[in-house]
Amino acid sequence: MVRRLVHCDLATGARRYSEPFAYPADRLASTDWAYCETVHSSQGRTVAISTALVTGGETRQWLNTAMTRGVRDNRAIVATEPPRVANARPGTRPAPELHRAAQLEQERAGLPPLPPQAPEVKDTLRREAVAVLADVLAHEEADTAATEVLRRNLSSADHMALLHAQWEGETRPLTIARYERLVRVALGPQHADTKLSHKAIWLWRTLRAAETSGRDAGQLLRQAVAEWPLEDAEDIAAVLDHRIRARTAGQVPQPPDSWSQCVPETADPEHQRYLNELAAAMDERTERIGEHLAARPPAWAILAFGLVPSDPLGRLEWERRAGRAGAYRELYGYEHPSDPIGPEPSAATPEKRALWHAAFRQLAPAEGVDLRAKDDGTLLHIRDTYATITAYAPRYVARQLREARLGVREQSEIASRAKAEAWMAGIRGDTERQARQEEIAAQAYRKAGWFRDRENEYAVADGVHREYMGKTATERRLAVRADAEYRNRHPEEKLEPLHSAEPEAVTDDEREAFWPSHIAAAKDGASHENAGREEPAEPHWAAGLAEQLAARQAAKEAESRGSPSQSKAKNRTAGQQQTATQEAEPPWVCPVTLDEDVGVIDGEDVAAEEGPAGGCRAGPLCACWRGDGQSDVTSVMAIRVLAWSTMALRSA
Length: 652
Known about the structure:
It is a single chain. The chain has helices spanning 60-66, 96-109, 129-138, 146-155, 160-187, 200-212, 217-227, 236-248, 269-295, 299-305, 312-332, 350-360, 376-390, 398-428, 431-471, 473-489, 508-511, 516-524, 528-531, 540-560, 564-579, 636-645; strands at residues 47-54, 70-78, 592-594, 599-601, 621-625, 631-635, 649-651. With 652 residues, the chain is mainly alpha-helical. The chain folds into 5 domains: 1-82 and 125-142, no CATH class; 160-251, no CATH class; 269-364, no CATH class; 389-544, no CATH class; 586-651, no CATH class. The protein is 52% helix and 6% strand. The strands form 3 sheets. Strands 4-3-7 form a 3-stranded mixed β-sheet, covered by helices on one side. Strands 1-2 form a two-stranded parallel sheet. Strand 1 (47-54), helix 1 and strand 2 form a beta-alpha-beta unit.
C-alpha cells in the first residue's frame, strides 16, 4: 500500500506517492478513506484537483475555502434546484405508469398509439449555476464582535425565561415540601409510615392546578381522604390524585396580578429576601416589556389591544395589559406575528396554563361580547343556548363519506384487475375464464357506481354539516365562554358539563351496511371472491338522513307560507339588505324544481333541451346547474339534501 503525497512533482507536475508499506488487514473494516471531506477539515491543505459540492445555502467564506484547495484545477458541482422541496400543490396529477400501461394496451390491441403525455410542470424552476454561486457570494458570515456579544448578554440578564428558571429552582422544593406536610396531616397517624410512590409528582401537579383555580390544597386533601377508606389502596398518591382531579375538573385558573403575590414562605430570612427580590425583578421585567411594546407596538399587540392611547393614563393601562401578554410570549418563546398568546395550554402544565389565563384576561373581548360584565343569570341563559343551537345540527357523515370513497377505490381496482384478466384469457383462448372475469368486472363496476352515488350524497351532507358548523361557530363559542366564566366565579358549584344535542354519529353496526359482502364473508367463513358478488344495499340510516333533511325543508316552506303580511315584510326587509350585495355576490345555485325522479332548474324547458337545464332526464340521476356555470350530475337524494341548505325549491 502507498500513500499519496500532498505536493506534486515540481518538475513534471505528476502526483507523488510514498514508498510501499504494510497495512494491517484487520483494520480495513474500521478505516475511513479520505476521498471526500468537509471544507472545515480541508483548511490548510492543498490538493491537485478540488471539487466542491454547492447546494446554495453556503456562505462566501465557505466558498472561498472550498474553491482554493486545488493547485491545478478547482471545480464546483452546483445544485440548481433547492433540496428537500415539498410539492404541496392540490389536486391529482397523471401517473407516468398509467400512461405507459395504456400505451402498451394500445399496441397489443393494434390501435394507434396515444399522444405523448405532457411533462409535469414543477413548482420550483431550475436556476442557473452562476446565479446560485452569486447568492452564495452575497451570503456573508461575519463574526459577531465582542462588544455586541457583551451587549446581548447584558440585555438578556433579566430575561423572563432565565428569571423563571431561577424561580422554579428555588420555589418548587418549597412547594413540594408543603404539599407533603399537607398530605401527612390529612392522612393522620394511621398512615404515618406510608411512603408515597413516584406517582406523587402527579398529585403535586393536581394540587398546583387546584391552587391556581383558587382552591385550598389542604381542604381538598382532607375531603379526598374522607371520601373512602385508604387501607386497601395500592398507591395512596394515585388514589388521592384521582379523587382530587374528579373534584377540580374543568375549573379555570385565577392567577394573581403579580409575581410578588406568589412568594412562598420559608424559615430562612436570607432565602425569603432572595425570593422577594427575584419576584420583584420579574415584575419589573414585565413592566419594561410593556413600555417597550408601547414604544414600538408590533402587529400582534395592535390586534390584541388596539393602538396605544395618547393620554398618559390610557397609555399606562395599555402598557400593563400588553406587558402581561409580552411576558408570557418571552417566557415560553411564542413568536407568532399576529396571534398574541396562542392556544390554551393543557392541564399537564398548570403553571403555564395559569400564566396563559393571566395574559388572556388582559386581551380585548373576543367577538365584541364581554362576558365579564354580565350577571350570573345572563351567563346561565347564554350557557343554556348551547343545547338549542346544537339541536339543529345535521348528522355527521364524514366517516361514511370516507367509507364510500374507499368503496369506489376498492371496486374500481377489482374491476381493473378483472378486466385485465379477462383480456389475457381472451388472448389465450380460455373463453370460460374470460366470461367469469368479465362478470366480476361488470359487478365491480356496478358496485363502484353504487358507492359513487353514496359518495355524492354524503359529500353534499358533509358540506351541509360544515356550513352549519361555520355559521354557528360564534354562538357555540359564546356559550362555552359563558360556561367557563360562570365556573370561574363559582368554583364550588357543581354544574353538569355542556352536552351537545346534535344527532349521534353513525354507529359501527350501521356502517357495516357499506361492506355487507366483506363482513358476511368474515362472519360466515365464506371466500372473498364469492362474497364480492353480493349486491350492496341502501343503508337504512342513509334513507333516514334524506327524510330528516326533507322534513326540515317542508317545515321551512310551511313557515314561509304562514302569513302574507309577514312574508311581504320579510321579503321587503330581505330585499333591502340584499340590494347592496346583489352585484358583489353572484347567486350560488339557481332555483330548481323538486320531483321524485328529477331536479330541474326553475324557468327552463327540459323537453325543448334549451338553456342550462337542457339534457336533464327523468330517472335516478338529474342535473343540477350552479350559478358559477358548472353542471353537477347527482342523485335525487343529493337534491333533497341541497334543498335544505342552499337551493330554493318548489313542488312540481
